[in-house]
Write a structure and sequence with these properties.
6-stranded mixed beta sheet, alpha/beta, 4-stranded antiparallel beta sheet, globular, 7 helices, about 220 residues, Rossmann fold
Length: about 220
């Protein structure tokens, strides 16, 4: 379980106040917020890329609170395909992620086949379309074999066929016991596989659409 207690986020201004949440394995959680509301910053903080200014984030497994090194091995976050180095290939990234994160080695060939990467998996990423880059990014999550996945707008650049493939990918990961936390826009089709959807509105963490409507009045 990944737990957040009394988290507040402030950059140039306060973005989120007193967030409390629990994220459990085998469940998918959506985060809906307008641009600039702090959802990407929240994912960076959960991933350990930014420090918390106020509040606590920790992970427990079998009643034991994990240390930072243990958490990093159980969690995978790759924010955007813009982070990919154009001189490397999808295969380079899949092999690196699998070696660096995976507790159990993933079947790289199976991942490549699932995402249809075979024709370009060894080409430099600078030759990829946006959709190809996004499929590479998503394949990296499978290669990580981690228990916790943090995803920022994971269907960005995917066509209809690959959106459907991604939905099945998410369903399968949840059945395998993954904890998936992703950001999305309102009415995103990802909500159909979410066990719970949270909203960030007026600097507050809200867990139902009804409460969002009440808060906006």
């Amino acid at each position: 379980m990944l737990q957040v207690e009394n988290l507040s986020i402030t950059l140039r201004e306060r973005l989120l106040e007193d967030m409390n949440a629990e994220f459990h394995r085998g469940m998918a959680y959506g985060i809906v917020a307008t641009n600039g509301s702090g959802k990407t910053t929240l994912l960076r903080i959960l991933a350990g890329l930014m420090r918390t200014q106020r509040g606590a984030i920790y992970m427990e497994e079998s009643g034991k609170r994990l240390n930072l090194v243990e958490i990093r091995k159980k969690l995978f976050y790759y924010e955007t395909s813009d982070w990919l180095d154009g001189h490397l290939s999808a295969l380079d990234y899949l092999e690196f992620v699998n070696t660096s994160w995976a507790g159990n080695k993933a079947d790289i060939d199976e991942i490549i086949e699932y995402w249809g990467l075979g024709q370009f998996v060894k080409l430099p990423i600078r030759k990829y379309s946006l959709g190809m880059k996004q499929k590479t990014l998503l394949a990296m999550y499978a290669a990580s074999s981690t228990d916790y996945w943090l995803m920022d707008e994971p269907m960005n650049g995917l066509d209809d066929a690959n959106q459907k493939r991604f939905i099945e990918f998410m369903k399968g990961a949840r059945e395998q016991g993954k904890c998936i936390i992703f950001s999305s826009h309102q009415n995103d089709i990802l909500h159909e596989i979410s066990d719970k959807v949270y909203y960030i509105t007026n600097k507050k963490w809200i867990d139902t659409a009804e409460d969002v409507q009440e808060e906006s009045r």
